[in-house]
Amino acid sequence: MAQILRQSTAVDVLIGPFVDLTLGTGAEVGESPSVSLSKNGQALAAKNDATTPVHDANGYYNCELDATDTNTVGTLVLIVAATATAREVRHEFQVIEEALYDGIYAAAAVRVPADTTAINGATSAAIRAEHYFTAMFRAASGSSWTTTTVADATNLTQSETDFWKGGILLVAQGTYEGLARLITAFDPATDTITFTPALPGAPAANDDYLIIPHAMVDLWGLLGTVMATPTTAGVPEVDVTFWRGTAVPAEHTAGYPIVTIKDGTGTGEINTNAGKVVGVELVDTLTTYTGNTVQTGDSFARLGAPAGASVSADIAVVDTVVDAVKAKTDNLTFTVANQVDANIESVNTYEVNGTGTPANPWGR
Questions:
Q1: What is the pTM of this model?
Q2: Neighbour tally for 65: CB within 10 Å
Q3: Least confident window among 69-78, 160-169, 268-277, 346-355
Q4: How far is 299 from 306, CA to CA, in rounded Å?
Q5: What are phi and psi of 134, to 5 degrees?
Q6: Rounded distance, CA 169 to CA 136, Å?
Q7: pLDDT tens-digit profile of 211-222?
């Protein structure tokens, strides 16, 4: 198995064993190894570090490599050619980037860094994931708590009001570890998050917490079926085919579902025994209204009984009379507004003479 080395970092490696050239056994302790390196499959060349390896024990030698010797990521093959007294020695190392090495081997290493440029071939998906995970973090110190707030001047340094609003705060240490709460506010002036509902008690100072930022979800499908674009943006359309495990019957009119009204005696229910909706008084006919007379056909008591065959016939007769009166009045002359012109020839059988003027007064 290849030994892992940190890129561009000086390191001491143990090489060997150096054994007798002829017998293949027995440690050779007096060698002065000349070390050659092949970086990631390239041509062998003498190592850059000038220090000659020295014997350690049992035919193994301590070999020093400098930052130049380990500056190329990939395989690093170390070879010491056979000498007049010892057989060839060969070692293979794997050089990895500093961040990756530190993520695995550094003191208190907690993660392996990865630079994901695409997810399932989509770079946009990787970008969205980056935005999400860089916003989510675990704070390891600096927190002070109440049952509804956490203040942290070390980690909550965002300048925007309500930066974390809508996210989830997860207590990650102590008595209340594992409890999650909805973030309702963030005050950058005091570096304080407010959450709800209240915790059973206040966590201890410096207890870890995790913030999971809120996110918008774009649903394109449900259970493998692509969702149709809604008529109104942002308002999903739902086709209900089952309700509480029972198939919903097809509607009589498209878009108007059949509604079953519950039989019972509670408010809004139909009491089939009494023939009414509870809380609502229903009547079958107008006869149940005290003090009123049934209004049916042409017998309308409030107008009186018709003189002719029906009320409509009586109205027709009146209409005929009105037309006759109008025909007569249309023949009247109004020389002066609102005064009817009259040509009087006699009064009480006496003939009237004159025109009513001073020169020709009325007379008989």
A1: 0.38
A2: 22
A3: 268-277
A4: 8
A5: -75, -25
A6: 10
A7: 887 755 666 677
358 Cβ contact partners less than 8 Å away, ≥ 6 residues apart: none
CA distance 239 to 260: 18
Contacts of 134 (CB under 8 A, 6+ apart): none
Per-residue model confidence as pLDDT tens digits over 94-153: 999 998 898 888 876 656 666 677 777 777 666 656 655 555 556 656 789 999 999 998
- The pLDDT value recorded for residue 129 is 62
Instruction: Please check the confidence at residue 191 and state whether its pLDDT lies above 90.
Output: yes
Preceding amide of 53 cis, omega within 30 = no
DSSP states along 157-197: ---STTTTTT-EEEE-SSTTTT-EEEEEEEETTTTEEEEES
Q: Which long-range contacts (CB under 8 A, 24 or more apart) does 343-346 make?
A: none
Predicted pLDDT of residue 309: 80
CB 212 within 8 A of CB 165: no
**Residues whose CB is less than 8 angstroms from the CB of residue 299 and which lie 6 or more positions away in sequence, other chains included:** 305
- Beta-bridged to residue 19, according to DSSP, are 27
Q: CB atoms < 10 A from the CB of 183, how many? A: 22
Q: Is the pLDDT of residue 80 over 80?
A: yes
Query: Which two structure tokens, joined as six digits, stand for 61?
Result: 């030698």
Contact call for residues 36 and 44 (beta carbons, < 8 A): yes
Give the whole-angstrom CA distance, residue 307 versus residue 216.
78
Alpha carbon distance 240, 261 (integer Å): 18
Taken as a whole, the chain contains a residue count of 364
Expressed in angstroms, the distance from the first to the final Cα of the chain is 156
- The three-class DSSP label of residue 301 is helix
| 285-340 tens-digit pLDDT | 555 555 655 655 555 555 667 777 888 888 888 889 899 888 888 877 777 877 77
Tell the burial category of 203 from Cβ atoms under 10 Å away from its Cβ (0-12, 13-18, 19+): buried
State the pLDDT at residue 161.
92
